Amino acid sequence: MEEMDVQQLGENIVKVLKTIYDPEIPVDIYELGLIYDVFVNETSDVKILMTLTSPNCPVAETLPMEVEEKIKSIDEVKGVEVELTFDPPWSQDLMSEEAKLELGML
Predict the structure, then answer these.
(1) Domains in the chain, start-ordered, CATH in brackets?
(2) What pTM was estimated for this model as a whole?
(3) Which pLDDT band, with edges at 50, 70 and 90, does 82 fall under?
(4) S-S: 99 plus which of 7, 31, 43, 47, CB 3.0-4.6 Å?
């Protein structure tokens, strides 16, 4: 796989992540800053490091599964691993300007 393909796949993954919303906040999980990292290797295996707004988040079980399912649905993706972390814990500082604007925080 060429370097450009990895980058393109990464961009496609971000597009898909932007279609997944936190059920309690009308902002997608990418803009919310819940996605800490997206790794794509030459064999099109994807690893996503993500967090939740809190460890007791009602979607703690379902949101990572939704992320995995939606990323798996991208044709070029071979495998997906979603790792949940609370280190560092999520804070509003991780939100994009767009998300803050959407939530009336700016």
Answers:
(1) 3-91 (3.30.300.130)
(2) 0.91
(3) very high
(4) 31
